[in-house]
Design goal:
Number of strands: 7
Helix content: 25-40%
Shape: globular
Order of helices and strands: HHEEEEEEEHH
CATH class: Alpha Beta
Number of helices: 4
CATH architecture: Alpha-Beta Complex
Number of domains: 1
Strand content: 15-25%
Largest sheet: 5 strands, antiparallel
Strand order of the largest sheet: 1-2-3-6-7
Length: about 200
């Protein structure tokens, strides 16, 4: 039995939960998905529920304790707009260009927001739940979302891309999250406002 097999047994046996910084799960690059299994299909609705419950617009597998290269998203963050729900299997950025620096937040870092330097546009490829391959080029919020989420499945967090000044400013919050994790408790600080970022 592999680590990923045991993870799926855990997924099947209990409700998924949001994973917070500095949980080591967030630092492990996720495994490519070779087959869309029954367990993964059952995890997808729970991932959407977690995303909506925490006022996000995107969520990567590791943030739900799913060690796979899967991302769910609804750019409007509105559970009533089911037609806007997207599932990306093995998303990969093929090309990118331009520069933008906009405010981002992260569901795994509740309460934190900072300007992150990103590419202004990206070209991505992925598969859907039916195995169909797609490529698209996007800019703006979608470009930011893909970059943020692909970082997650690669084991990277937005704190890795923050400036030294921002890291210093947010150090007290990061310390709080570290203390909460060490004590095995939910973060004491909640998101105070919505940040239009890949939440991710």
């Amino acid at each position: 039995m592999t680590h990923h097999d045991s993870a799926y047994i855990l997924m099947d046996a209990m409700k998924l939960r949001l994973v917070y910084y500095p949980d080591p799960i967030l630092r492990k690059p996720s495994a490519p998905i070779k087959e869309v299994t029954k367990e993964l299909r059952e995890a997808i609705p729970q991932m959407f529920d977690l995303m909506y419950g925490h006022r996000g617009i995107g969520l990567a597998g590791p943030q739900a304790g799913v060690p796979q290269r899967v991302v769910v998203a609804n750019i409007f963050g509105d559970p009533k707009k089911k037609e806007e729900e997207k599932v990306f299997i093995n998303p990969e950025i093929l090309d990118r260009g331009g520069v933008m620096a906009e405010e981002e937040g992260c569901l795994s870092l509740p309460g934190l927001s900072a300007k992150i330097r990103r590419s202004a546009w990206v070209k991505v490829k992925y598969r859907d739940l039916d195995g169909q391959a797609w490529e698209l080029q996007c800019e703006g919020l979608w470009a930011k979302l893909f970059q943020h989420e692909v970082d997650h499945i690669d084991g990277l967090l937005m704190v890795d891309k923050m400036t030294a000044a921002d890291l210093k400013q947010w150090r007290p919050l990061l310390q709080e999250l570290e203390e909460d994790h060490a004590a095995k408790r939910e973060p004491a600080r909640k998101r105070t406002r919505r940040v239009e970022a890949a939440e991710l």
